[in-house]
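sry for the spam today, last one i promise. struct tokens for design, 210 residues
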């Protein structure tokens, strides 16, 4: 997941008063995030300042295409990108394609998913299914993440090579191998873990009935 490529994705900061009339304070405003000190009344009646990180919403995509096997069947391959993650001091994090919802895409994350799929894999999907909407870490940030399953893929028109400043490599990996990487801890990115497990269940339901 990278910075928003279009208009600013920053959310509108909420500074309304709480039940006791105390208003939020802005502690920091950056290019991508805003830190808000939000007065909150705890269950025991005491008031505290809650540190809230306002972050744009995002999408992630489990992109699936099929590869013929010697036995005449087809096995599913999933797109995995390798990219550096300086925050966790890692040069090679294995993740599903993802990106931020641009300002003009708010309310239409499916559009963002189609764009990110095209930009990061070079494919378009005839079918995009929302697997889930989840909050990445609701203890401190309001970021919502929409995870999609993309199937019935075909190459997109034009050149859509992944941006080398963001993504080191794109692999199409057998789904079974990707699940093994999850179990072994080689994949430890939360959106990728959630997306792959949900996609596996969805594909099995497609194959064997619901």
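last one done:
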């Amino acid at each position: 997941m990278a910075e928003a490529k279009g208009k600013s994705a920053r959310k509108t900061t909420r500074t309304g008063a709480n039940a006791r009339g105390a208003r939020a304070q802005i502690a920091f405003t950056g290019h991508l995030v805003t830190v808000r000190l939000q007065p909150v009344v705890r269950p025991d009646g005491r008031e505290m300042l809650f540190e809230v990180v306002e972050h744009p919403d995002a999408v992630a995509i489990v992109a699936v295409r099929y590869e013929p096997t010697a036995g005449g069947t087809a096995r599913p391959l999933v797109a995995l990108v390798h990219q550096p993650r300086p925050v966790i001091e890692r040069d090679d994090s294995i993740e599903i394609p993802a990106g931020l919802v641009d300002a003009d895409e708010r309310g239409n994350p499916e559009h963002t998913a189609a764009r990110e799929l095209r930009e990061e894999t070079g494919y378009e999907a005839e079918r995009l299914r929302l697997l889930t909407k989840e909050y990445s870490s609701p203890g401190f940030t309001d970021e919502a993440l929409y995870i999609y399953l993309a199937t019935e893929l075909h190459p997109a028109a034009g050149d859509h090579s992944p941006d080398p400043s963001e993504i080191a490599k794109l692999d199409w990996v057998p789904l079974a191998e990707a699940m093994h990487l999850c179990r072994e801890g080689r994949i430890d990115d939360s959106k990728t873990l959630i997306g792959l497990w949900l996609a596996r269940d969805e594909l099995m339901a497609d194959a064997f009935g619901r």
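Helices lie at 109-121, 175-184, 190-208. ok im logging off now
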